[in-house]
Design goal:
alpha+beta; Rossmann fold; Archaeosine Trna-guanine Transglycosylase, Chain: A, domain 4; 2 domains; ten-stranded mixed β-sheet; five-stranded mixed β-sheet; 22% strand; globular; EC 2.1.1.-; Nol1_Nop2_Fmu_2; RNA binding; NOL1/NOP2/sun family protein
Length: 463
């Protein structure tokens, strides 16, 4: 039973009335709603979980529980996510080829959805200010097979200097007081206070002031929080409208499980606030969430093709030499490549022996870059060793150079980092799968031993 602060109870009784507030408080003591999304980028999508109950509006999303060692999760075929938290990325309505920024991205639930919508075309900048949480972000984007992401570990101020008026869409899932997560994370109740709400509001305004500098004229800002607080929700949206002359876009989402924002909470003279969305836990969709879609004034100017060509001709000293291309080709020729990788010889660069295809080719000076694009693998003495990220990307198309693990025991041993003896005519580098879910590279020796190339940082305790 949650021990809600008296000031919290009084606040929402005043905002909602005693009957609706009581329903909110009661819902906070009920079980959380769990759901998952299926990755449409992967070639194999037949999962073992039930798809009997779909999450409203969200493509390929269903209620159900996912375990972290299931092959569906390890292979990046599913992502476990609060169903309410799926809506900000969905409402962004991303189109392939756009330039998209997820400003507060970790652990990556919304980011994977944005990257999936881009379909390996355009650019996704995924930023996380925490040096600890950005590691989880990178792992999740790698697992999902996102090939066109620039992952950064910076604040909004640093990004604004590098990307002025650059992005078509920016998603800001802002740090907040977390009222919508009370039943999922009861510890959040302990640090809630009216003063903390105001502190969060100030921080959100600071983040957004820099965020809008990165939007193209006519660009779209998706603002979301996991709190109910009008100070951090409707009030912030009203501030964006008045300060930056932004307009609130209609969301075209109507459901008994989804409510709208309330102008009466903040400013009755701005009825467009009712276009925003509020997801309450008592409506039985998921946890608490607030989402607003706003448009910057002006019109996006078309891309200057001459300028783009000039950028592409910029001299790069890190291109692969002939021998290096031959070593990479010797390995890649055994696998079916997605269309966006077929021209890798002209795109691949090498840095400290790491071979990669950059998502962003221009200067990132001043930014802490965690990953840029897709890493193909590592150059060693007169040979090439394919990388884990490449394995997850290759799972987007059907493959023949695959060894299928035959039992749960073999699968768990492989996740633990052990070598296995397999019955296969294949030799050399292979993709490793369990229940048809590709999740790693391996290498079969002449005597049928499958050497383990599952990354050490992802390996599990032996179970």
């Amino acid at each position: 039973m949650l021990n809600l602060p008296d000031t919290f109870i009084e606040k929402y009784q005043k905002l909602l009335g005693k009957e609706k507030a009581a329903a909110l408080f009661e819902s906070m003591n009920q079980e959380t709603k769990k759901a998952y999304r299926i990755n449409s980028l992967k070639a194999h999508q037949k999962v073992s979980y039930s798809n009997a109950q779909a999450v409203p509006f969200i493509p390929n999303a269903y209620y159900g529980e996912v375990k972290g060692e299931d092959p569906e999760w390890v292979s990046g075929t599913v992502y476990s996510q609060d169903p309410a938290a799926m809506f900000p990325a969905y409402l962004a309505q991303i189109e392939p080829g756009q330039k998209v920024l997820d400003l507060c991205a970790a652990p990556g639930g919304k980011t994977t959805a944005l990257g999936e919508a881009l379909q390996n075309a355009g650019l996704l900048v995924a930023n996380e200010i925490s040096s600890v949480r950005v590691k989880a972000l990178r792992e999740n984007l790698e697992r999902w097979g996102i090939s066109n992401a620039l992952i950064t570990n910076d604040d909004s101020f640093a990004l604004a200097k590098v990307f002025p008026e650059f992005f078509d869409v920016i998603l800001v899932d802002a740090p907040c007081s977390g009222e919508g997560m009370f039943r999922k994370n009861p510890d959040a109740v302990s640090y809630w206070s009216p003063d903390y709400v105001l502190t969060c509001r100030k921080r959100q305004q600071e983040i957004l002031t820099e965020a809008v500098k990165k939007l193209r004229p006519g660009g779209k800002l998706v603002y979301s929080t996991c709190t109910f607080s009008p100070e951090e929700d409707e009030e912030i949206v009203a501030w964006l409208v008045k300060t930056f002359q932004m307009t609130i876009e209609p969301t075209q989402v109507e459901s008994k499980k989804i409510s709208h924002g309330q102008a009466r909470f903040v400013d009755d003279n701005l009825p467009e606030l009712d276009r925003t969305l509020r997801l309450w836990p008592q409506d039985d969709l998921g946890e608490g969430q607030f989402v607003a879609v706003l448009r910057m004034p002006g019109e996006s100017s078309p891309i200057d093709s001459k300028k783009e060509k000039k950028k592409k001709k910029k001299k790069r000293s890190a291109l692969l030499n002939k021998d290096e291309r031959d070593w990479v080709e010797k390995v890649l020729s055994n696998f079916n490549l997605p269309d966006f990788l077929t021209d890798w010889p002209s795109k691949a660069l090498v840095s400290h022996d790491h071979v990669f295809i950059p998502a962003y080719k221009q200067s990132t000076k001043g930014l802490k870059v965690i990953n840029n694009g897709v890493e193909l693998g590592l150059l060693k003495k007169k040979r090439f060793e394919p990388g884990h990220q490449l394995a997850e990307v290759l799972a987007q198309v059907d493959q023949t150079q695959v060894v299928e693990l035959q039992s749960n025991e073999e699968y768990r041993k492989y996740l633990h980092g052990e070598t296995l003896r397999v019955k296969s005519e294949l030799r050399g580098f292979v993709l490793v799968a369990y229940h048809d879910f590709i999740f790693s590279f391996g290498k079969i020796t002449g005597n049928g031993v499958l050497k383990n190339f599952y990354p050490k940082g992802l390996r599990t305790m032996k179970g």
